[in-house]
Amino acid sequence: MSQLHDLTALEQSRAVRTREVSAVELTRHYLGRTEELSDVVGAFVTVTPDLALEQAEAVDRRVAAAESPDDLGPLTGCVVPVKDLDLVAGVRCTFGSAVFADFVSPQDAAFVRAMRDAGLIITGKTNAPEFGMPCYTEPDVAPPARTPWDTTRSAGGSSGGAAAAVSAGLASAAQGSDGGGSIRIPASVTGLVGLKPSRGRVSVAPLVDSVGELVAIGPLARTVADAAALLDVMSGVQLGDVFAAPGPPGAGKFLAAASMEPRRQRIGRFCVPLIAETTVHPDCLAAYEAASTLLAELGHEVVDIEPPYSPVLTPHFEAVWATLAGSIPVPPGKEGLLRPLTKYLRDAGEAVTGRQLAAAVAMLRMAARTAILATAGFDALLTPTLAQPPALVGGIRDDDDPARDFAAQKEFTPFTAPFNVSGQPAVSLPLAQSPTGLPIGVQIVGRPWGEADLLSLVGQIERAKPWVGRRPPVW
Fold first, then answer.
1. Is position 334 annotated as part of the catalytic site?
2. What is the pLDDT of residues 314-337, one digit of tens each?
3. Cα separation values, 201 from 110, 246, 356, 361, Å
4. Which of 65, 144, 336, 441 is the most buried (most CB within 10 A)?
5. Is 428 part of the annotated catalytic residue set?
């Protein structure tokens, strides 16, 4: 007999809106699973049962007052936690760091307000590494985030807790953020859809865009449609935002785009690593080849192309990344609580002069413009998401040699960060599994501001080769 978490997020909401199940019942179901499994997979830093049940009761009142289920949003009543790098009023926000272990946010992020307004229920804050810097989630404030497919292996980062929560059935979907792959990396290793939207699609207010404008807020979900629906909820521009992505064509929604059949597309593909000289694992190459074959079978033209970025740009990205780490205000006397990698990055950032930073940002912007123009003849790009299958917990982290730690991260994730530089939408799809059953993602990148077309394409891929029935052992 199926359980509530077996349903997709959209199916759960439909059940709430038609009063087959109450929002309170769905929330209690997820809170129970969270109590049982959160520490097993390192999903949550903070759980907020009282807040969640208060929200659920309000949703049930809203449902009772509605004339029709269709008068309510398609994710009404769904449980969608927030990453612990982002603000929820009255809830602890550690930013993944012992430095901020006791910080309580005085306000909501703009997208969190939008989630509340849409009737989504926040059961807590999901696990993240310190300041979101590494591609694994092993902070001092929570257990390591683990992929539910093999709990000896990492759920990636920095949205590792969000991915672990959705993949283990502790949430309907989850919010994540991505500054160098931090949605797509966890999606790949936990078997989820992870969408990094276009720059300016989701406001980061009340915070401001980080140096280099690399970070995007986006969804982690089990299906393309669930991800599209959550993107619809979170999308929006606030006064003072520097970037504002245009909405879907006409008065459309991204959810509608996910169910539309795409026109025949021209897709450029490459598997040469972009930010590190490393070897791509055969399982990742096999997933990439299988995706290429599937796209061709669906009628699309798949063309081998030269990579639009080169590892020569990596030092410029590193200068921006290190400056970002160094710009985070740490209260005096608490520097000793920082993790070795964070200290290493902050020291590197302090060594970057203003002139060097300006040059690095200019070089990255020029490289992005050049790459976008070079691939303008393609509707989408296809790459592996990662160079390796899911890593062991602690397998990348090296507290004794943070320089080696950082190098290993680049070797693990050589395909994702350039599309933060370009601001293009990019999604990791759970199309493949290794011979031992580990999830292996493939990355598909859209045109600038092209989420609607991208969702149409990946929705077609999912219909051709569905994955929602795959469930990890902890399910």
1. no
2. 999 999 999 999 999 999 999 999
3. 12, 8, 29, 21
4. 441
5. no
